[in-house]
Amino acid sequence: MVHSIDLKAYNSICKDLKNPGKLQNTDPRLKGLKDKVTEETSPLGAKFRLKDEVLFGRRVSTDMWKAMLPSCLEQKVIENTHISLGHLGCTNA
């Protein structure tokens, strides 16, 4: 059974993600990719693309594009997901 998700735990992340393009620019790896990928076709266009200054990535075998998460948010997302979902399969007695 999956526990209910507490969306309040995501408030701080939602505030951080109001301008994802700027946050991506603070991550050296993502900034480097953004500098190589343009809004038009690029050699990396099969895996990465820019839309409204936000870098998206995908596996070449899929059509699902996902916004690239800056490193400054990785730990916060992991912790909030853990708090929100808890341990699957565990129940409180």
Topology:
Elements: H1 11-16, H2 20-25, H3 28-36, E1 48-51, E2 54-57, E3 66-67, H4 71-85
Antiparallel strand pairs: 1-2, 2-3
Commentary on this structure:
The chain has one domain (7-85). The protein contains four helices and three strands; from the N terminus they run H-H-H-E-E-E-H. The longest helix has 15 residues, at 71-85. The protein has 93 residues and is an alpha+beta fold. The protein starts with 10 loop residues before the first helix and ends in an 8-residue tail after the last helix. It has a three-stranded antiparallel β-sheet with strand order 1-2-3.
Over the alpha carbons, how many angstroms does the gyration radius reach? 16 Å
Low-pLDDT regions: none
First-last Cα distance: 15 Å
Q: What's the total count of β strands?
A: 3
- Count of DSSP-assigned helices: 4
Average pLDDT for all residues: 77
Secondary-structure element string:
HHHEEEH
Largest sheet: 3 strands, antiparallel
Residues in helix, %: 25-40%
Class from helix and strand fractions = alpha+beta
Number of domains: 1
Q: Strand order, biggest sheet?
A: 1-2-3
- Note the beta-strand portion: 5-15%
What is the 3D shape? globular
Short description:
The protein has helices spanning 11-16, 20-25, 28-36, 71-85; strands at 48-51, 54-57, 66-67. The chain is an alpha+beta fold and 93 residues long.
